[in-house]
Specification:
By secondary structure, this protein is α/β, with parallel strands linked by helices. The protein is built from six helices and seven strands. The radius of gyration is 16 Å and the shape is globular.
């Protein structure tokens, strides 16, 4: 998927809007957010999830590798005169992570694009403060039909397998819930793709 080309229309998709709203509401319901908390969104795209959480957090760093997505994000921050959101171009697989420690790290539909899941979870653990929360919203394991164009990432995730990886990286209090169901027409048939929210803690 060419995210640079899709950036301008990314926030116009009603299903994307619904999904983001559902994930934001679930995070707010399950994670204690505080105005002084520092947060990091990885694979932020146009930052829609962070805009939902922004009023309840302190400093938010938003990272993505797509210039197009970051350009739209910067325009939204400027238009809204938002003071606590900082966008950055970053690929954690090949570049150093920010030196500060975060109370909250979250991803929305981005983990399945990261080839080395173990590595990214290990990096997140090292970037978090003790008692910090990691929130990942993504696809349940699917048959490969979700991405209609050529795709080389993960075909969703088995929840138990992902839990085992999190446990190996010393995360605790791991819980999953289904927060949204995406409905797509595939080869003339409607299919449902559940979206989970995983919440874990560095204790």
């Amino acid at each position: 998927m060419n995210f640079d080309q899709k950036a301008r229309d990314w926030d116009l998709n009603p299903m994307t809007i619904e999904r983001t709203n559902a994930v934001a509401q679930a995070i707010r319901a399950k994670v204690p957010l505080a105005p002084g908390d520092s947060a990091f969104e990885y694979g932020c795209g146009t930052g829609s999830l962070s805009f939902h959480l922004q009023p309840f957090l302190g400093r938010i760093c938003l990272a993505d590798s797509s210039d197009g997505m970051l350009e739209v994000l910067k325009e939204k921050i400027s238009k809204g005169a938002i003071k606590n959101m900082t966008p950055m171009k970053l690929d954690l697989m090949s570049e150093p992570h920010p030196e500060i420690k975060f109370d909250l790290i979250y991803m929305l539909m981005a983990l399945h694009h990261v080839e080395d899941t173990e590595k990214i979870l290990s990096l997140f653990h090292g970037m978090m403060k003790r008692s910090g929360y990691l929130c990942i919203a993504d696809l349940d394991k699917e048959d490969g039909s979700f991405h209609e164009d050529e795709f080389h990432g993960h075909l969703g995730f088995d929840r138990e397998e992902l839990k085992e990886k999190l446990t190996r990286q010393k995360f605790e209090n791991i819980q999953f819930s289904t927060v949204y169901e995406m409905k797509k027409e595939i080869s003339g048939k409607k299919k449902v793709f559940p979206i989970f929210l995983m919440i874990a803690q560095k204790t």
